[in-house]
């Protein structure tokens, strides 16, 4: 019988909801491989596309290490976690509403890693990927522990351009529960900054727009 793979989405349903009802969640510290960047994510061959190559390349280098007998200490079989993104602009705190000029985006794209992934494991994976794909700029990627804290979230189904209606619903829920949205200004540095956060359940590179499922998460504070 094949070994059961640990799936973060199934093991932590509070962090990766499957229903559209908004919820409040305390998000713990977790390790991520991250790639920061700027600009329109839809530009072919742009920074965002390169970030995807880095994130998936590093994540699968670690996941497949067992095949070569080079797996880290504490390794277990698992499903690679969903792609996530923190989004903001330099002008005003960004809460997910449409902007005309998507080149104004600043973002951090990231994929959660299992607990056995340490800075040393990340450095090993970066070396392996650099050897196999020297065209990638591995200096852009980093490993960070990110603790988001108190947040409200909701599952959005459908195209990204339809997110505003879901965000309005989330904002109403936040207010009704006695909280304020607590998104940081552009000047607040990472990891202290609290951003508009999207978690892409499934692979956004392969899904049709109508089939997309996106967790929208906003940091909150008690009024």
Strand order of the largest sheet: 1-3-2-6-7-4
Name the structural class: alpha+beta
| CATH topology annotation | Multidrug-efflux Transporter 1 Regulator Bmrr, Chain A
Characterize the quaternary organization of these chains.
single chain
Walkthrough of the structure:
The protein is globular, with a radius of gyration of 18 Å. The chain is of the alpha+beta class and about 220 residues long. The chain has a single domain (about 10-220), classed as Multidrug-efflux Transporter 1 Regulator Bmrr, Chain A (Alpha-Beta Barrel), CATH 3.20.80. The chain is built from four helices and seven strands; from the N terminus they run H-E-H-E-E-H-E-H-E-E-E. It has a six-stranded antiparallel beta barrel with strand order 1-3-2-6-7-4.
Tag the structure with descriptive keywords:
223 residues, alpha+beta, Multidrug-efflux Transporter 1 Regulator Bmrr, Chain A, 7 strands
Q: What is the secondary structure topology, with strand pairs?
A:
Blueprint: H1 8-11, E1 23-38, H2 47-63, E2 83-89, E3 105-112, H3 119-132, E4 142-157, H4 163-176, E5 179-181, E6 196-201, E7 213-222
Antiparallel strand pairs: 1-3, 1-4, 2-3, 2-6, 4-7, 5-7, 6-7
